[in-house]
Design goal:
Elements (H helix, E strand, L loop, with lengths): L5 E3 L9 E3 L2 H10 L7 E5 L5 E10 L2 E9 L2 H4 L6 E5 L5 H12 L3 E5 L13 H16 L12
Parallel strand pairs: 1-3, 6-7
Antiparallel strand pairs: 2-5, 3-4, 4-5
Helix pairs in contact: 3-4
Length: 153
């Protein structure tokens, strides 16, 4: 089975349209994976849409991708939504819960502070934590998945 990299796209875009990716994603595709022009990619967004993409070019350290098509909900399959309510554990254990839960298919995490919670972070730190947690989940989505044929290849 071949590997098709998956990337998170902040906004959807039209078929055939090209889009420049952000710096961390561009670095991941060009320097870590060393993809070349024409390589197939799979993109997804917060609206749970899945896109077939193609690596178009690398220009000034920025990767450009072209949208080939959007997967229909029926071709992706019917998947039940999974939500995980988790009391905040001590230390950085919640990071591991987010990573592994995302890899298993959890779509929604509900961090909770319960009566018996040992971890009670300050409210002011939640903005920083949310940014960190989002990065962890996006990284977890990059894990190896079975290849899906790209149209036109």
């Amino acid at each position: 089975m071949s590997f098709i990299p998956r990337i998170f796209l902040p906004d959807g875009f039209a078929d055939g349209e090209e889009m420049a990716l952000d710096e961390p994603t561009s670095r991941y595709l060009s320097q870590v994976l060393r993809l070349e022009t024409g390589a197939p990619l799979m993109g997804f967004d917060a609206g749970q849409r899945v896109f077939q993409l193609r690596f178009q070019k690398l220009e000034n350290r920025q990767v450009w991708v072209q949208k080939i098509s959007e997967e229909s909900k029926s071709s992706v399959g019917t998947v039940r939504q999974i939500a995980l309510g988790q009391s905040l554990p001590k230390a950085a254990k919640f990071d591991l819960i987010l990573r592994q839960g995302t890899e298993l298919g959890v779509q929604r995490f509900i961090p909770m502070v319960t009566r018996r919670s040992v971890s009670r972070p300050e409210t002011s730190r939640f903005d920083h934590k949310q940014d960190r947690w989002l990065k962890i989940m996006v990284e977890a989505c990059r894990q190896d998945v079975p290849a899906v044929p790209v149209a036109g290849s």
